Here is the input.
Amino acid sequence: MSEHTPLDPQLTLAVRDLSVAYPSQRGLVQAVRHVSFDVRRGESLALIGESGAGKTTLGLSLLRLLPPNAQIGGGQISYQPAPPAECAPVAAINVLQLTPRQLRRFRWQECAMVFQAALNAFNPMLRIADQFADTARAHGYLRGRALALRAAELLRLVRLDPDRAWRAYPHELSGGMRQRALIALSLLLTPQLLILDEPTTALDILTQHTIIEVLKDVGSAFGLAMIVISHDLTLAAELADRVATLYAGMIVESGDTRTVFRRPAHPYTAGLLNAVPTLAAHKQELRSIPGAPPDLIDRPHGCAFHPRCPLASEQCRRVEPPLEAIGDGVQVACWHWRSARAMFVKRET
Amino acid sequence: MRNRTGLIGGALLVALMLLTLVGPLVVPPETQAHVDRIYQAPTLLHPLGTDFQGRDTLVMLIHGGRDVILIALITGLLTTLIAVLVGTLSALLGGVADSLLIGVADIWLTVPRFIVLVVAASLVRLENVWTLAILLAVMGWPGLARQIRAQMLSLRNREYIEAARMLDLGLVQIVFRELLPNMSAFIAIAMIAAMTQAIYAQTGLVFLGLVPFGNNWGVMFSLAYAKNAIYLPNAAWSLLAPMGAIMLFQLALVWLARALEERFNPQLRAGRPG
Amino acid sequence: MTIPLIELEHVRRNFTIQRRQLTAVDDLSLRIQPGEIVCLVGESGCGKTTTGKLIAGLLPPSAGSIRFLGQSISQLRGAAYRRYRLGVQLIHQDPYASLNPAHTIYDTLAAPLRRHRLTKDERATRARVRELLTIVDLTPPDDLLGKYPHQLSGGQRQRVAIARALTVGPSFLIADEAVSMVDVSIRISLLNTLLRLKEQIGLGVLFITHDLALANYFAWAGRIGVMYLGRLVELAPTPLLIAQPQHPYTQALLAALPAVDPDLNRQKAPQLRSADVPSLLRLPGGCSFHPRCPRCQLAQCEMQVPALVAFRDGSAVACHPVQHERRAEENSDVQP
Here is the structure.
């Protein structure tokens, strides 16, 4: 494992200046640009944004699961495993420089990923039991009866009936049940960091609620750090301690969830909040964000959000605002963040 | 890779067609035997050598391609036409009609095609390009019809077809304006497949001497083989030339089909969100 | 009292899957007035999409009757059938599948205009297409006429789908999860377009969704119907349903809605006994909700299917304990 300057021991993951691009017919798609963020031990961070914002690419890059044509343009992903004892020193792992063998050990044992509950997240030809066995075998983990016991424990934790789920094929389980089984599988080797990509999208309200409860349980039971990638702001509000808004492949705002959602400093975050209906929706002024997501190949000059921003000025059109700390643990990349805060329609609850 | 293969395939096809359809108008045919020139190796005068009767192989090639290409084209068109008709009717009518039509196709598929062709050749005089083409089409439509039907059935349930039904656009219009255009790539590729099939069948029949054609590539090959060309070194050219011509034709078709497939698929997938 | 635009009476729809019968919609009765907005809410498998298809005439009912302006749709012929067929249109969920990929936007919108001779000539057709695109907020329309669906975003495609539905002058639109596959920030504007159409041309809308918050927003002036395993379990004007849900399932749905304000104090509904929905192939006896229901106390719940009973305040519930309580308060036999 390659070492470098030890990180703040409170951090599980530190991403610095990460950029990822894909070559395409029309040009280079810059899916992720100079992204930096931290995830503390046991903390959950939500990455929110809409389709095409680069969230999934970012998630995949953390585990180096990108397709072969993806180009990592620079940056660092540093992961710090949990210290074995209270004050024992721990070397940080530079994920981007792991060898294939080290990478295999990193994936699933230290960091696991849960994809959407689609039918093809599991191998449709294998029973759930076999999928668990495959994963365990690939990492030299438990087998046979010991595995079944451990798996049953995990399945119960995610509120699945082990007897029913263990011998089932994926198509025999509903979307919500598959999602929970996926979560259980990801916890098999007790990772420290869990990345979830759209865990509740396309699921029903009650199922979503169950998944959220399950994730809360799981997080506290294992002291997991979580990164939740989603376009659903309510999921972030329920689950995440901190939130980061992505737009056109960059983080435009980040901070404590409560603060960001009550007083958003970036017009895009404010726009998203204004577009989400709650039960008091009829009393609010709900509005969509005009325009469309930006072209990631030919992005606008200056601030990528300016074509759709009600506060856009000449400066916004020419110069890209840097991500800056503005107090209360919030960082924002906007020249007019004060106006954005003032403009935000207070939501009635 | 992309469309270069298709371009080459298309160019090759055009070249072959020019050679065999326009060539005979320009190059005089070989009608006489020149016993003093048999089995010559390629020279400037005879770029592909001469055959067992001293005739220039290249000239023979130019004059011998017409039948092959015409049969391939006509058979391809006819097979596709019948298959589209049967497949579409079957898929859209459903119920008893569907079971009946598909049942016929299935049974027809189990019949060993080549044997039937051989038997038919002995019963009917297959001297006309059209007769052979029709026969081949009649034998070849079931496989394609099943594919067309499957494609229709899957398209039939697409949302935009449902919308067309709700807008009461009418069955005829739905078939011709909504369904078939979305299958045009499929049908084009299928037609090319039918053409390659026709070439195989035709060459086989000719090789076995069951088709009394005057001169074509298959005949050249058959005669060369019968005259023991494989034992004589220079004679190999008279054997390889027609074989090579047939192969080139097939290759051109296959490349064209592959490029068509590549071209049509990404466009349909381009809309999917990332 | 006007003739309802759409009326369903004890409608049932069965499906046969691998030789077993499944009842996707059971004993559904509903009246929708012209220009009214109704939302059907429920989870997957509850039968709301099937109901939409039944109303759209894409599926025949296995039992019961569906009426359009008083006439049973299965018996309509000729001009009357055409009035129904063009009067009720459907917007699909998937914007990537609802437009024919081989046609330009202009072709897609011109086809029904030409087919039904709704415009005089080509110039009039062109003008009408531009007009329709403007009505659905796709401006400037000329930018889109020559484009193909794959060149448009999801939100734009849905608008074209709405425009296409409008070409034939419908009086009722069924939006089947029409915004679920569209970006979050665009959903509201699509719904606002539909609301505007309701105001401007008196279009009635049936909005099918599993998102109760969206239903609340869209149908605030209308009604919400909650479906569970093929049955309508509660039907009430939206403000009433949201403020005072009566059926335990509705209460659970409302309590489960995640909110953007993490500190929001929501009414804690009694927990459901199981997180999973039973399969439609093995329905529980009596009230199909009873195994999960926190209020299930009566033997009646396990044996008798509760009917949807209406009460004077305009709400209707299918739940034995609730009905007993409320019947004690009032007597009503008003139809929903």
User: Anything to note?
Assistant: Residues 263 and 269 of chain B are 11 Å apart (CA to CA). The interface with chain A takes residues 273-274 of chain B (CB under 8 Å). The radius of gyration of chain B is 22 Å.
